[in-house]
Amino acid sequence: MTAVLRAGGMRVVHLPARTPYAWKLQSRDFHILNGTEIPSGDTVPAAVNAAWLLEHGPLTWLDVLHLHHIDFEELATLERLLDECLNHGVDVVFTAHDVRPMVGSAEDFTARLRMLHSAEVSWVCLTEGSVTKLEGVLGERPNAAVIPHGYVATPESLADLERESRGPGARYLMFGASRASRDQLSTMANWSLGITDSHSTLHVLLRAFSPADFLDGGHAPLLLELAGRDPRISLTMRPYPTDEQVVRAGLASESLLLPYLWGSHSGQLELAFDLNLLPICSLTGHLHEQYERHKGLVEEPEWFDWSQGHPNLFGEIFLTALEKAAARLDSRPRRLDREFLDYRAQEHRTVLDAYARVYGGDR
């Protein structure tokens, strides 16, 4: 995906800019530099990191640095980048997608959050609940703008699309990187053994494995073996699935499996709302608050709660939710909800207005 430069407006670099959440933040007031050429002749990577930016100083070629996921950055490097931004008048915005680390230790993640807080960067939270959670982590309430996640699939891209017609069985989808926070393996096993309908299918869209997925207890070998035992399960591997590939997989499904062991917010849940998929979703973090924002406009997910109880009972809890969802996935066609997509377009305008204030507001 390539950023579209617009005349005038603030110049924004997203760290990183690989997700629809970042790419959609463009308006007449600000445009994205990722994927474009800067005065040095270099092209800003979509997945730019702090080290690359420091190597391409002085940072006079951007106005705003928008931080998203900071788990992979060395603390000292991130501190140097913030100093560089301060020295050249670059405003820094941090969206707290996660209030618990996806990788690394809680101590390291908390150190990063506290460093950002002490640097007085502008904060954005996706839910009110996450602001309260961060207050407990930081020791004081951050001065954060609360701006909802919004759509994942652009309403315009869905205008001429519709869900693929289905056969007699329900079609389930699970996608994303293999992470400790996402239980793909037992979810596949429980689906395979718990869904006895021979016509039902499960499509697992995977991001490319790394060596770590096969070492030190990595689950990749078991996942591949399990998929090979059930012909109803299909695996698709992509280096990094494109937005189009994910949407196409969603339009060939009726239900999305979201087996989070932990997490703060979910773009996949928002995508399920966009595509009118029935989410079978772990009740974790602030996902229920994401649903509450759209309550009455979208179908309520089939929730299952892994936050309480012994981990040995997690399979029972999930399979119960899966059985309830199967009963909800009747033969009715699940068409895209055009009224909800119109609502999404209106919601996005408010999101852009809110970010224009954050990017251009007083620091």
Structure description:
The strands form two sheets. A six-stranded parallel β-sheet has the order 2-1-3-4-5-6. The two termini are 31 Å apart. It is globular. Helix 6 (185-194) packs across helix 11. The protein has helices at 20-23, 50-55, 75-87, 106-118, 128-138, 185-194, 220-229, 243-251, 267-274, 287-293, 314-328, 338-360; strands at 10-15, 30-32, 64-67, 91-95, 122-125, 144-146, 171-176, 201-207, 233-238, 255-258, 278-282, 302-304. The chain contains twelve helices and twelve strands. By secondary structure, the protein is of the alpha/beta class.
Keywords:
six-stranded parallel sheet, 36% helix, alpha/beta, disordered N terminus, 12 strands, 12 helices, 363 residues, globular
Please render the helix and strand layout as text:
Elements: E1 10-15, H1 20-23, E2 30-32, H2 50-55, E3 64-67, H3 75-87, E4 91-95, H4 106-118, E5 122-125, H5 128-138, E6 144-146, E7 171-176, H6 185-194, E8 201-207, H7 220-229, E9 233-238, H8 243-251, E10 255-258, H9 267-274, E11 278-282, H10 287-293, E12 302-304, H11 314-328, H12 338-360
Parallel strand pairs: 1-2, 1-3, 3-4, 4-5, 5-6, 7-8, 7-10, 8-9, 10-11, 11-12
